[in-house]
């Protein structure tokens, strides 16, 4: 027991005396002075921050919007891979432990986007797989979210079941919901993103009123053909990571990359993009199994997912997980390998067991 202002407080851990020094639990001391204490399991670090001054920013594994790239390196080390996003920044991919999977968007040396979906993630006391009702109690999710940026007033439609937006201490948080894990929606993943990146990416539907600011919402970003190929290759590898993270959370085996199947998938996405259609059959009427065989791929079991219109791999994956047929392929323990092909905003996943 400890005493604060004559009040008896129960300690989770007793004080320890070592070499004539008394050690008391850090959480007890910090919270007694009104501080916030958070354990970051990704790197076994304790973060103590002042709640009153708002120093503690929303974070995923200790990573917050606006942090410097050098801070990220000190917390998580070098990423396993660096990908390119379609929004002008790089993704730092940390996939060494899929239970703590995280990808971090870095632009001009600062964090502008963070996404995590590993089963080890806990955000503000809410775990991946937690009920949507927990989010609603904590963040009061409303049908419309309003905010201002650069003298432009935005109103976001927040009624979509599969994705909920909340401003947490001024930081936009996207809660992706799993509509099929249980009878009620559960938390699938979390994405923190800077307000300007959220707006310019157009990953949410919004209306806005212009009131004298200088924000150009409609200016297109010119992307070279070489840059597009790099972005598409990034999406392909990310979809493998995201698929495996979803599988490991549910006890399924990990898939390995299948380059030959990826080339077949790429060909189908290209076919759909060039000929402006969306189907499992090619423009000449060939179904995916025959396309695999014609490319010399022999298989015992195969399946295919296709998606269209999503702005990046994260959005494509979350959309596929909320479609029962596509979800079945993603989690099917009979599959052993995966090849992904992306062209523009057409996505094809070929699951193959040799």
TrEMBL record:
Residues 2-48 form the Copper amine oxidase-like N-terminal domain. It comes from Ammoniphilus oxalaticus. CDD domains: CAP_bacterial. Residues 65-202 form the CAP-associated domain. Residues 240-350 form the SCP domain. This is Copper amine oxidase. Pfam families: CAP, CAP_assoc_N, Cu_amine_oxidN1. It comes from the Bacteria. InterPro entries: CAP_assoc, CAP_dom, CAP_sf, Cu_amine_oxidase-like_N, Mao_N_sf.
